[in-house]
Amino acid sequence: MKYRIYNLWHDFQRGDEAAFAKIYSINADGMYGYGMKLVKDNELVKDCIQDLFIELWDTKHRLSSVHTIKAYLFKCLRRKLIAGASKQRHRFVSAIKLEMVRETTPSAEIKLVEKQRFEHERKILSKTLKKLNSKQREIIHLKYFGNLSL
After folding, report:
1. CA-to-CA distance for 108 and 126, rounded, in angstroms?
2. Measured in whole angstroms, how far is the alpha carbon of residue 112 from the centre of its chain?
3. pLDDT (tens digit, 9 = 90+) per residue, 112-131?
4. Whole-structure pTM over 0.90, yes or no?
5. Alpha carbon distance 106, 115 (integer Å)
6. For a disulfide at 142, which of 3, 64, 99, 146, Cβ 3.0-4.6 Å?
């Protein structure tokens, strides 16, 4: 049996499409089940399996011999799933950060209302300060602008 599997891998490496299809048909379902246990993301698992087999076909002449095709494929799939899940997590975190920026960035209307409120409060404060004598104004200035305590 090992001899047959070795021949299957060897034939695939030489470009035999039937051998490649046989490797796929023997292992795809098991790879899918294994992938779902790792990441629980149907689309990611399917995409990684597809990408893996495309890469295998494209690099078949540079691949070394393997002792167990199934173990080799599962290991490759695991690496792809980890990388894919990491990319998805990074995109998810980036999307959350972007949404937070959108939520914290005030709209033009909010900015206008805040500016108007600030101007109104500044005018009230200015009127109130004018009612104070010079000693009281000096104390306010030292407390709030000179960072001195009373």
Report:
1. 27
2. 35
3. 888 888 888 888 888 888 88
4. no
5. 12
6. 146
